[in-house]
Amino acid sequence: MAKNADESAVAEAVERLKSLAEEVEDLTVEFSKPVTAAEVAKLEKKFKLKLPPSYVHFIRTYGTFKVLHGGRELIGMEEPGFLRAAAPDASDAVNGDDPDVEEAINEALFFQRADDDAVDNFWCFNPRDVTPEGEMGVVGYYHDETFELPQLLGTKNARHFRAFPAHIVEIIDELIENFAEA
C-alpha cells in the first residue's frame, strides 16, 4: 500500500471505530491528544531511533486510543513515552533468562496490549526489521511463548513483514467484526 492509501485506510478504520462506539451500548473510544513534532523528536532521542513514519503520522493525527466496553479495556495503545516502559520483564517470557531473548525484549517498542491489562501480551515494533522508508515490522509478544525479533526484510520470509497501518486497520476491523457477531 502506498503512503496515502495507508493513511486513507487508517482514517477510514478510525471512523468505523468511532461509528461502532456510537452504535454499541457501553462502548467508548477514548483518544489522547495528538503528539507534537517536538514531542516526537524527544521520543526519538529517548529511544535512540527513528519511529516508524506511519506510527508518527497516527499519533500526530489522532493521538493514542483505547476502546472500553462496560468500563473494561478491550484494545488500547500505550502512551508514546512508555514504549519501552510498557515492556514485560524478561523473566516473564519463556526462555527470558536467555541473553538473546532479554536483549530482544529490551530493543522492542511495545505500543499496544494484545489483551486487557490482566494479560501481558503486546504488539511491538521490531527495530531489527526496518524498510528503507523507516517502517518497522510489527510483531506480537505473548507471555507464554519465546520472544524474538526476527529480521525478515530481504529474506525469503519478507512477505511476513507487517507494517503499522495494516496492523491497526486489522485490529480495528477484528473488533468491529466481533461486535457484529455478538
Count of β-strands: 6
Judged by helices, strands and strand pairing, the structural class is alpha+beta
Radius of gyration: 16 Å
Distance between the termini: 31 Å
Oligomeric assembly: single chain
Q: What can you tell me about this protein's structure?
A:
With 182 residues, the chain is an alpha+beta fold. The chain contains 5 helices and 6 strands, in the order αβααββαβββα. The chain has helices at residues 3-23, 37-47, 53-61, 99-107, 164-181; strands spanning 27-31, 65-69, 72-77, 109-113, 122-130, 136-141. A 6-stranded antiparallel β-sheet has the order 1-2-3-4-5-6, sandwiched between helices. Helix 1 runs parallel beside helix 5. It is globular, with a radius of gyration of 16 Å. The model has no long low-confidence stretch (mean pLDDT 85).
List descriptors:
182 residues; alpha+beta; six-stranded antiparallel sheet; 5 helices
Give a brief outline of the structure:
It contains 5 helices and 6 strands. The protein is of the alpha+beta class. The mean pLDDT is 85.
Give me the secondary-structure topology.
Layout: H1 3-23, E1 27-31, H2 37-47, H3 53-61, E2 65-69, E3 72-77, H4 99-107, E4 109-113, E5 122-130, E6 136-141, H5 164-181
Antiparallel strand pairs: 1-2, 2-3, 3-4, 4-5, 5-6
Helix pairs in contact: 1-5
